Amino acid sequence: MRLHLLALAAAIAAAPRPLDAQTDVRALVARLDSAVPALLRESHSPGAAVAVVEGGRIVLERGYGVANVATGAPFTSHTPLNVASVSKAVSAWGFLRLAREGRMPLDTPVNALVRRWRLPDGAAPAREVTVRRLLGHTGGVGVPSVPWFRADSAVPSLEDVLEGRAGGRGPVRVETAPGSGWRYSGGGYTLLQLAAEETSGVEFEAYMRERVLRPLGMKESGFGIPGRGAATGYDEGGQPVPAYRYVGAAAGGLMASAHDFARLLRTYGRAWSGADRRVLSRTELEEMARPMAPVVLEGVSGAFYGLGHGTHRAPDGRLYLYHSGGNPGFRAYFLVAPERGDGVFIAVSSDNGVPVITRVLQLWSEAHGGGLPPLY
Questions:
Q1: pLDDT in the model for residue 228
Q2: Alpha-carbon 175 to chain mean position
Q3: Using one digit for the tens of pLDDT, what is the confidence trace for 342-354?
Q4: Which residues contact 287 (CB under 8 A, 6 or more apart)?
Q5: Which residues pair with 305 in a beta bridge?
Q6: What pLDDT digit, counting tens, does each position of 170-214 carry?
Q7: Sign of torsion, CA 77 52 218 348?
Q8: Residue 19 to residues 23, 41, 261: CA-CA distances in angstroms?
Q9: CA-CA to 10 of 20 to 30 Å: which in 273, 299, 326, 372?
Q10: Model pTM?
């Protein structure tokens, strides 16, 4: 699983004022409707899902291009596609919901919550690896990206993946001192998935569907095998990639549509304002937004990670939560300003999708007076 976090090389040209009028919203939607099809053609990408929320109102949920080149099936707002590591942000809603229910307290050592497989001591005692630290990638555990398996074949267990017996990523182990710094780990999210299953008593996919996705209105989304109507992913040469199953689904296995993600974007703002407590409250979103550690990537400075999200407080005071992701055949990104109820989601069914995402973010930023987090 590759992350596509691009450092801002220069300031983005800013519009004279942020969006605050109906005509501005229509102008942004018109720009996206014009730009995205052209960007897909230029990047040789078959299709994309885009959603935009302004002031807590869904103003765009659209599919562009085709979901399958061979059949010509259109890419619609209801077409699910894999959103790769953006899954971590949605999974965080589930883990924090379990914390609210008293089943996965954030500062509990993860080994106190699991029985089927336990993290062994390594560079430091495993008891120092807590739920909070795994959520913020400060648990000191390895395995940056989780393996994928063809959906039409038998898949191993979570324990097999965690122990490194399947997938070729190696075992999840404590490799640096927990709490000492940021170390991206899909393996850590796979361990959180195991803890969620053991403390809830149901499979992760079922818990997320009943306690998170359905209450959020995300009825077309799920952490299971891609179903009929899902978008096909394509490699850089335009060849279709197989449908994959992610055993570590919490780290990268979510399938979601533009229609569904628009509802998630809207709920960030509604939960922050206190108007919606169905899944999480403002207090829990504030936990997500609190920086855990600076992100360590070459050529990048000023970026921080919270719980399941990148987090950034812009010079003008705007708070951003965000995440990017890349799996075979798919690239995705979302950004939300929960205090303002604004947000944007873009996912492309191609390994060539990064330029599409980058330009959509730039257009969204220009419409809001400029400014994006240090990583996008």
A1: 83
A2: 25
A3: 999 999 999 999 9
A4: 96, 106, 306, 307
A5: 293, 310
A6: 999 999 999 999 999 999 999 999 999 999 999 999 999 999 999
A7: positive
A8: 9, 28, 21
A9: 326
A10: 0.93
| Residue 325 identity | G
Could you tell me the two tokens for 202?
Answer: 């149901």
Instruction: Give yes or no for a contact between 44 and 341, defined as CB atoms under 8 angstroms apart.
Output: no
pLDDT tens for 80-98 read: 999 999 999 999 999 999 9
131 shares its domain with 240: no
Measured distance CA(336)–CA(342) in Å, rounded? 6
Q: Which residue has the higher pLDDT, 316 or 176?
A: 176
Given a cut of 80, is residue 8 above it in pLDDT? no
Q: Which residues, at least 6 apart from 85, have a Cβ–Cβ distance to it below 8 Å?
A: 1, 3, 186, 251, 252, 323, 324, 325, 326, 327, 332
SS3 183: coil
Q: What's the full length of the chain, in residues?
A: 376
Q: If you search the block for the tokens 């989601």, which residue do you land on?
A: 345
* Same domain (yes/no): 189, 315: no
Domain that holds residue 62: 22-87+224-367
333 closest CA partner among 353, 315, 352, 319: 353
User: Residues 151-184, buried b or exposed e (16+ Cβ, 10 A)?
Assistant: beeebeebeebbbbebbebebbbbebebbeebbb
Q: How many domains does the chain have?
A: 2
Task: Answer yes or no: is pLDDT of 2 > 50.
Answer: no
**Do residue 106 and residue 35 come from a single domain?**
no
Q: Which helix (H) or strand (E) holds 265?
A: helix 258-273
pLDDT band of 371, cuts 50, 70, 90: confident
Q: Which of 344, 338, 341 has its CA nearest to residue 324?
A: 344
